Sequence to fold (297 residues):
Amino acid sequence: MNKVTWSVSLICPVVTATAAAATTATNAQRLSGMIAFSAGPFENGTTDIYTVRADGSELRRLTGGTGRKFDPALSPDGRRIVFRFQRGDDRTAEIYLMNVDGSQLRNLTRNQAMDYAPSWSPDGKRIVFASDRGGFFPHIYVMNADGSGPRRVGRSTGEYPSWSPDGKRIAFGVLMGSSSSSFEIYVMRSDGSNLRRLTRNRVTDNCPSWSPSGRLIVFHRNARNGLPRLYVMRPDGSDLRRLYSAPGEVPDWSPEGRYIVYSAMGVAVMSANGSHSMPLDLGDLQQPGFPSWSIAP
Fold:
């Protein structure tokens, strides 16, 4: 099995709209915080990490050069970004860290395996990620924020992990068998114990993200026509419901939990109940996606 199928390369074309329109559409006060995302011609092997304030101001490119830089995750304090950097195919994927201004770029993993999908612990001291360093299939690993002390957590395969706000649990996607293309959402304690399956679907459920309150998990579900939709559920898998009728994937919550940012023909913001949505104006950037939302430093 070609391991490229394990990475979720979600590529979205550009949409333009004003940030003011997004604010009006969500019928809310001015959006706050910082959003990190990737953009660039993915098929040409070059993407970069950008940040923009949630109100659409201060768009900045943080990385340059060749290679694909994507899967960014802003730290809880908004001061650092971890992301996936691969100079070639998926086998070259490493996890890098930099300050939110793009300075002090460094490789945290330095491993011949595929390391990807990083996410922060609530206190910003550790990073959870997916890696196939233990064999053919990726598993969940945790390391310190400086890259030291990496260790496998739990026995289950998995990718795109997300830490609960209280630090006690990790949700992630699991491929259901070597001959399957279906992913399901699982949750376990942060020490790898008490593994539980949350979704039961014949298509892909992946990229879970905990709400700041810890009461909900948002994720994307690929329909049989191949178009992903956003769903929410409780951490025990109950009260499952679709948020919005239009396609969306790779969701993340705003710091206060009132909004959700996601990839949808660009980067879009919706109210947490799914009632309103509008794309964010990112100018002429190509294929923006993989958004992460945190407070502004």
